[in-house]
């Protein structure tokens, strides 16, 4: 895990605890989740379709990479 982020949508709805994770194929996001009674983890907030998920992931990862570059320059 590289970071934990929060996003605000339209200044009306916030999602906390989105994880930025380094996987075998690069960075991706994991939405906040909770362990269910059966031991499985289930997202407690998530996009309804892949286009929205791709957009949210793109925005988060672009901001993460910009922040990481700024930290390296300091």
Strand residue content: 35-45%
* Strand runs, count: 5
Q: Class by helix and strand content?
A: alpha+beta
Q: What best-fitting shape do the alpha-carbon axes yield?
A: globular
Distance between the termini: 23 Å
Largest sheet: 3 strands, antiparallel
Percentage of residues assigned to helices? 25-40%
Mean pLDDT over all positions: 94
The ordered H/E elements are EEEEEH
Number of helices: 1
Residue stretches low in confidence (pLDDT < 50, at least 5 long) are none
Largest sheet strand order: 1-2-3
In short:
The chain is α+β, with helices and mostly antiparallel strands and 74 residues long. It has 1 helix and 5 strands, in the order E-E-E-E-E-H. It has a 3-stranded antiparallel β-sheet, covered by helices on one side.
Structure in words:
It is a single chain. The chain has 74 residues and is α+β, with helices and mostly antiparallel strands. It has one helix and five strands, in the order βββββα. The strands form two sheets. The protein has a three-stranded antiparallel sheet, with helices on one face. Strands 4-5 form a two-stranded antiparallel ribbon. A hairpin with a 3-residue loop joins strand 1 and strand 2. The protein is globular and about 45 Å long. It starts with a strand and ends with a helix. The mean pLDDT is 94.
């Amino acid at each position: 895990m590289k970071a934990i982020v929060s996003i605000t949508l339209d200044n009306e709805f916030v999602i906390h605890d989105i994880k930025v994770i380094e996987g075998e194929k690069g960075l991706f996001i994991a939405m906040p989740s909770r362990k269910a009674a059966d031991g499985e983890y289930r997202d407690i907030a998530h996009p309804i379709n892949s286009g929205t998920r791709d957009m949210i992931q793109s925005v988060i990862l672009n901001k993460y990479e910009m922040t990481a570059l700024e930290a390296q320059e300091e």
